Amino acid sequence: MPTSDIRNFIAFAQELVEASGEIIREGARHNNAFISKGDDSPVTEIDRRAETEIRRRIEAAYPGHGILGEEFGSQGMDEDFVWVIDPIDGTKAFVAGIPVFGTLIALTHRGVPILGVIDHPMTRERWIGAEGFPTTLNGVRVTTSGRHVLSEAVMSTSNIELYDAQSLPTFKTLRSSVHWCVYGGSCYSYGRLASGAIDIAIDRFENPHDYLAHVAVITHAGGVMTDWDGAPLTIRSGGHCLAAANPALHAAALHRIAPSDRTMPAA
Hints:
Elements: H1 3-28, E1 34-36, E2 42-44, H2 45-61, E3 66-69, E4 73-75, E5 81-89, H3 91-96, E6 102-109, E7 112-120, E8 125-130, E9 133-137, E10 140-141, E11 154-157, H4 168-175, E12 180-183, H5 187-194, E13 200-204, H6 212-219, E14 224-227, E15 240-244, H7 247-257
C-alpha cells in the first residue's frame, strides 16, 4: 500500500481521537451514570457520544469504508477497508475516575490491521503504529523491551474476570512462569508494552474492537501479538491474545501455554 495512503490514514485517525478526546475529557468532569448492557458490561452516554462523532467523521471522509464499533455495531463489513473503534476501552475505570481508559481505533485492510491508535485522553498519551511506520508515543518513536527471559518478564492482564473455566488455567500457567504481573490496566498496558515497560500481555477479549488497535502499535514497536495458537490476529480472530516484546519472548510464552504438538510461529 502506498506510504502516502498510510500517512493520510494516520492523520485522519489522529483527527478522530482529537474529536473523541474532547468529548471524553468533558464527560470525565461529571458523575458518569451508566447502564448495563446485555453482557452486564457498563456503557455511558459519553461512550455513545464519542462513537457517534467518530462514525460521523469516518462516513463523511471515507464513505466507502466499513465501520465496526462497540456501541453501534457494524456496517460495510464486506468493504476492503474497515475501521474498528472502541470509544472508551475501560468503561469501568472511566466510571470510577481511574485514568487508564482510552480510545482504540484500528484500520483493517481485508481483515488485517494496518493501523492502530491507543489514545488516553486524560493523560494525553497517544500511541500510533502503522504499516511502514515505527510506533510513536506523542510523536516520539518507542520500542519494546529487550528482555528475552520469561522468568524475568513483567506481564499484564486487563481483567481476571474475563477468563472462564477453560481459559483461566492458561493464564495461571503463564503467570507462574513470569516475574510478576500487573492487573487492570486495560489498553494502557498495551501502550506501556510498546514503550518497553511491560514485557508480556495476555488477555481473553470478547470482540475485535478490544484488541485490533494493539496489534499495529505493538508490532511496529518491535513486538509480536498473536492469538494463543500463535496465529495472526485479524478482524475474525477469537480474542484470545498474547503479546510480547520480541519474537524470542513470545515464543517462550507460547511454549508455556501451547501443547507441544502445536505449530510454533516463525520468529
